[in-house]
């Protein structure tokens, strides 16, 4: 190409542009050379003769640009016209390299072969790497790349064949053989790195651009695998040695190097991983069978965790990362999954009984990893039901039933939270299990829950209010599982009435707080009567304040103070009427209040309940005066001893004077002659009450406190009282059943017997028998709410 340059300044500008282009070419060449020698760990970069790109000037451009590939411009081919009048710059194309003789090619290959042999024999290399690289490049430019590649492959093959023979003749086994094999591989790999650096130009210009060819490095690996690792003896000895060393946990660095060799050669999966996993399976299968029979479950679970941690560590030390997953799954399968049922049968119950939450968490995690959580949940449900049934069905444990259930539920909740990771499936299993065994005895759990709450809300309870509130919340959890909530309501209302009327409640605020919780659980209809009881107490308090302000009360009041609670019959429990003979002083105040009430509420009728009254009496004893807090019946009996000279009365005298029912009289007398507060003495002196007994005041009575509470004897609860409460519940249920039948039939108009029974069982919230439902249907037929179909006796029709 020729260009006319008229002024000299333009020629100088063109020269400057060429200079800049040549420098950039030199930079690219040096950068590529740096990368090549850095990759092959050559000392070129640290050579003192090396100059940075910035140190090159025009004097070295020619030598630098000799390395430029054939399509680049060489500085030696640029001519500047010295004549100012010609004003031309000529740039000529590169010439084709001159052909050389075969002798020259063989001579050049001889240099490379000598270098290869010296590298393989670990001898110093005669020529520099730069010269050898230039030789390889020159041969490639002479189109001898194929010849060069084939001869390089042959030299590597010969070397590997000799190494195979040496290793096959090696008498060593296991560790010694592995060390020898590793030395062979390490040396060969280092040799191939150096050889590749020499033949890099061959790889770039021939191997990478020729189909079916691989680089010198990959060729070396293929030859090592083909002519050395295909040897059955070498493979067998190396695999046996590796497995043995892994079992003994020895020579980890050698193992890591050899397993990297397996990966580099592409034989890791079939040559090592599969045999390794098979051998590991055999080992753990044998170990699991032995340990599951000899170890305690907590120790076995720890052993499994230790083995899993060890296998993970093994993977990080020398195994390939892709082996981690199948290896861990294998260990989990052999040690956990195959023995899941045996583990649970042997140790689950003992772990829960011991509240071993750490071991249960370990069991949960292991079973979760092998997909056996459903089996664990099944055992959890079986255990909960079995232990719960033992508590509920054992009548000897009725007195502690609710406390035992509360403790049991709290324990399982803690296990659920800390060990089972708050798993929703386990939570549902726990709820279903409690609901099943709590309703085995239809009425008893609901009754005992009511009594347990009564014991916590009584003033005799020594717990603080926060502790009581916490216990009530736990009990409320059990209450949610009870189907007979109407039974609970009946017994709770009866106990609440006693606490309110006898002033035995720990706190009215606590009472109201618990009723609010019941209201949130069951709705306002469930607690309307309970709230009405508190309303009556507030009205009674206001009524008594008005009564004490009357002139008649003030004129009559001496040393007796009367307090009356007026109750709405529909809100309060049903009490058996009990007519007793009151002392004259009490009768006077009772009539006074009755007149006051009738004047204030005309038309209302008062019905007195003496069984719920209590009194505070002053007792004058020879050894000190005391204040006695007693029930109304106790007070009536004690008043009798004020009117006798001898202070001695027979059983029949007391019975005739008080008119108290015999069973109640026996219980009341027992409370006065037994325990720490023996106010009365009985002759003969024994705890059994007979009609021939005599009673007298205890002249030796003394007590450290001024005010003494005389508790009534807590005999077994009267069967009649329980029957009354149960009967009231049954009557309420009958009304609910009748209403449900009428509601269903009004909507359906006509239904057969089976369909009606099924719908009733779905709608009713309490357990009921089909025979009881049939009785209610017959009752409605008798009352003309329903009729039997004339064509089919099993079909009922609704009568509008």
Automatic annotation (TrEMBL):
It comes from the Eukaryota. It holds the Pfam family Cullin_AB. InterPro entries: Cullin, Cullin-like_AB, Cullin_CS, Cullin_homology, Cullin_homology_sf, Cullin_N, Cullin_neddylation_domain, Cullin_repeat-like_dom_sf. Residues 444-673 form the Cullin family profile domain. SMART domains: CULLIN, Cullin_Nedd8. PROSITE patterns: CULLIN_1, CULLIN_2. Keywords: Ubl conjugation. Belongs to the cullin family. PANTHER family: CULLIN. This is Cullin family profile domain-containing protein.
